[in-house]
Amino acid sequence: MSNGDINYDRINDYGAVRISLASPHDIRSWSFGEVKKPETINYRTYRPEKDGLFCERIFGPEKDWECACGKYRGMKYKGMICDRCGVKVTHSRVRRKRMGHIELAAPVVHIWFFKAMPSRLGTLLDMKTTSLEKIIYFQDYVVIDPGDTPLKKHQLLTEEDYRKARENYGDAFEADMGAEAIKKMLENLNLVELAAELREKLDEENRKDKPSKQKQRDLVKRLKVVEALRDSGLGGPQNKPEWMVLECIPVIPPDLRPLVLLDSGNFATSDLNDLYRRIINRNNRLKKLVDLNAPEVIIRNEKRMLQQSVDALFDNNRCKRPVLGSSNRPLKSLTDMIKGKQGRFRENLLGKRVDYSARSVIVVGPDLKLHQCGLPKKIALELFQPFIIRRLKELGHADTIKSAKKMLERKEEQVWDILEEVIKNHPVLLNRAPTLHRMGIQAFEPVLIEGNAIR
C-alpha cells in the first residue's frame, strides 16, 4: 500500500498483530517528510509553519480538497501536488494518519530498553543498569574492543582512567561513551554464538554439585532475551539489537496531538508538542555545534541533553528529572497515552462506548417485584430509540426517520405512549460491576420511573 493512497476501509484485513522493534528504515518509510523546525503555527495567520510540527506538506491539508496556498480547490484536483506550496490535494482526515520523522544529529538509546525493569539492554550486554546510565549520559567511557591491552571488554573507565589508558596503550584499544558506544556494542553481538555460549555455561552450572541458583537465574534470563531476538526473524523481519538505539524519531500525526484556539484567544496544546519542540531545538543546536567544530565537552553535553529530551518524549515519568509544564506537573509522554485505564489500549481498543446502552447509579426499589427494575424515562428513551422510531412511522405520526427523531427530542405525548407499549415485550440486561460471576448480569422487565437512578 503506497503512502499516498491509504484505504480507510481495510481495518478488518488483519488476522494477527505482531509487535517488534522498528528499524531506522521502517521509521523513515512511515514518514511523509522530515520535521526540521520547532514551530507549530504562525500566530498571525493561524496557518501551520512550513517544515514545522503541523506542516501541511508533511501531514496533509487542514481544509478538505484544498492546498495550503489555495491554488487548487475542489475534488477535481484530487491527488495533485501543488507546485507552489507542495501540499497534496486530499481529505483533511489524513492529518490523523500521516507521520513525520526527526533525523537525529546523534543516536540516542530508547528509554524503554534500559530503564525498564528488568533492563533488556543490561540483560543483553550483561551489564548493570547503573553502568549503562553512566555510559549513556556521558559520565564514563566503556571499552568496546580491548585489543592486546590488559583492559577487559565492557569495562568502565572514568575520564582520568581513559586518559591514562590512551597514554599507555595509544590506539591499541577502542573505547567510547554515549549511545554510539552502546550501538557499537550491540552491533558486535553475534546472537547465535552468544545463545550457544550461554547454553554451554548453563549446562556447566547445572552439572556442578552445588550449582549457584542466582547464576542459573541470571543465565536463563539472559538466554531468554538472546533467543527471543535470535528467533524473531522466523515470523517476519529479524529484530536487530542495535535498533534499540534510535537514529531517527517518528513524529505522530498532528490531529493526535492537537493545538486548539480557545475563546480567550489563548492556545491549548497537547504536551507532546512541547516535548517534540525540545527535541528539535536541541537537535538543531547540536547540528550547528558539530558544523562549527565546537569543543568535545560542549558537544558531549548537548548530546546528553538530546538523550534526556528523547527520554522525556517516550516516558517522562521514568526520567530522573521529569519535564514539568506550566502548573509544575510532569508533561504527559507517549507512554502515558498508552498505559493505564485511560490509555489507548484499555480505553479505545479493548473497551468502546456502545450505542443504545446507559450507565447510572443504582438505588433500592422495595416496591418492585423480583424480576423488575426501575428504568428512568430518559434512559429508556435512549435504549429503545430504534423501536420508537419504527412505531412512530408505522402509526403515521412521522413520515421520515428525521421527523421521528425530532419528535423524540421534543418528547411529544405519542412518544411516551409508544415507549410504554415497547417496553412490555423487551427486557433489559443489567450489569452490576464488578462482574465476578455470571449472576452479575441479569435480564429484568423495565418499569418506567422518574429521576436519574436505576432501581
Description of the molecule:
The chain is α+β, with helices and mostly antiparallel strands and 455 residues long. Among the domains are: 109-244, no CATH class; 270-352, no CATH class; 372-449, Barwin-like endoglucanases (Beta Barrel), CATH 2.40.40. It has 17 helices and eleven strands. It has helices at 24-30, 56-59, 111-115, 120-125, 129-136, 159-169, 179-187, 191-207, 213-231, 271-291, 296-315, 334-338, 344-350, 377-383, 385-394, 401-410, 413-423; strands spanning 31-34, 99-109, 141-145, 156-157, 174-176, 245-251, 259-261, 267-269, 372-376, 428-431, 441-449. The strands form four sheets. The protein has a three-stranded mixed β-sheet with strand order 1-2-6. Strands 4-3-5 form a three-stranded antiparallel β-sheet. β7 (259-261) and β8 form a beta hairpin. The model is unreliable at 1-5 (pLDDT under 50).
